[in-house]
Amino acid sequence: MKRIFISAAIVATLGLTAWKLNDNKERVAEKVYRPDPEQKVLVKTSEARIRRLVSDEQYLGTYIANREVDVTAESQGKVLKVGVQAGQYVQAGQVIAQLDNEQLRYQLEALQISLEGYQNDARRYETLVKGDATPAINLEKTELSIRATEAQIKQLKKQLANTTIKAPFSGLVTRRMFEIGTIIAPGMPLVHLADMSVLKLQISVPEADINSFRAGQTIPVASETIRNNHLSGQVTLVGSQGDASHNYPVEISVKAPAGGLLRAGMYGAVQKANSHGTGLLSIERQSLIGSSKQPQVYAIEQGKAVLKNVELGKSDERFTEIRSGLKPGDQVVVSGQINLQNGTPVSIN
Question: Can you give the pTM of this predicted structure?
Fold first, then answer.
């Protein structure tokens, strides 16, 4: 009897608990907001139509020297004179280094003496050959000796000239790699010379924009270190071969301003207005929702907001191209999307 009473009490308790939970659930459900499916949401719309899109594109790059080279030795010898210092601006033809050439000068002097002797012999043989006093072959051998000696003299003069190392063009000595007394070998670099009177801005341009650049075109350029000066450059190279990312090299020559404010290695930029076609179907950018991988818009059809997937193209500051998903004349929501679902009735503001 006692067990029956306890079991009945437990069942009653469970029943009471279940009834209380169900009652609470019903009260919570009554408080949950349920939008009226027939109530219209106020939205603002814009028309999808054909527009000309113009955007300001910025292409970043680096300034490099107009030309630069390691000046190397063509002759062997000991440095007797140092003509330049690192950081010095030199003119074309200015002496960079003078090598010891004493031995070469002695050899040249000996050859010139030999040449003089051969020339005297030739004059004597000419007289003897005319009188049949000696075979003509002696004159021929002497003339060949004269020609060989003259060739040797030219070679020695060239070697002597190479012992005086000169700047091939005007520029800045950025590095010096020798000192007085250094033993120089042929091909050894002595200084790094850079012509910075004109700098080249190297930028990388995407495939879609490369046709807006052409050789000889004058365009504005910028540098972070020169904010108040308006610089311009001339396009000297438009690459014909793109990289794996379909970017093409473009070079712009810029005359360096006075004072060395613009230097090789600095960052530069080109700001260029690009026109993306004369007739592109486009909508306002603020109409877009969804993600970058799957952009979407709400289009108005028969008084309701219909969610549509779209494919995007070019864009400017306000509009973006629609390649698929809409047609000219479609009304798309530009304000009020947060309150919409697919099929929501709308009222256009």
Answer: 0.58
